[in-house]
Amino acid sequence: MRRKIRKFLPKHELIQNNRWLAPFANTLLHPRLWHLNRHSVAGAVAAGLFCGLIPGPFQMLGAAICAVIFRVNLPLALLCTVYTNPITIVPLYIAAFTIGQQVLASNGRHFVAPPEMGDDGLIAWIQALIDWMIGLGAPLALGLVLLASGLALIGYFVVRMLWRMHLIRAWNLRKLRPKK
């Protein structure tokens, strides 16, 4: 399983040689951030899925912080945030808003699409995004936390289950091999 995952992940030497990340090298080069085992991979998937619903361009930063705090695989945590993209973010936020409405039992507000990033620049878009979120209020905030937590839990346990199934299959294949 490790060999299959390792093909898609960058090497930690890239960080070691990057001049922009050099001040953070002691933290980012910790061996547990690059190790692949069932705990590290499952935690990284959970961190990435949770942080994928952070609004705006701060998803990968949140995933990196979570990976450092929980000492899970850093590249995989960053990679798992990409499930939110311009195509999937609106349905995910609608689902989060609906979940928040159901929990809070507040049916008075309706979902409005998030603002698009126009020619005004990143700062203006972030301000419009914050205003949009404040306008939707508590149902969206609670729904995002609940949806992110649910996705993280599901991702964690699915990875653990798949890793275990792969391990059992490998053990069974090893038993079937003829002994020399």
Structure description:
This protein has about 180 residues and is mainly α. It has one domain. About 65% of the residues lie in helices and about 0% in strands. The chain contains 9 helices and no strands. It has helices spanning about 1-5, 15, 25-30, 40-50, 60-70, 75-80, 90-105, 120-135, 140-175.
Compact description:
The chain has 180 residues and is an all-alpha fold. 64% of the residues lie in helices and 0% in strands.
Helix percentage range: 55-70%
For the report, how would you describe the main beta sheet?
none
Count of alpha and pi helical runs: 9
Whole-number total of structural domains? 1
* Low-confidence spans: none
**Alpha-beta classification:** mainly alpha
Radius of gyration: 20 Å
Spell the H/E element sequence.
HHHHHHHHH
Question: Total strand count, please?
Answer: 0
How is the secondary structure organized here?
Elements: H1 2-6, H2 13-17, H3 25-28, H4 38-51, H5 59-70, H6 74-79, H7 89-104, H8 122-136, H9 138-176
Helix pairs in contact: 4-5, 4-9, 7-9
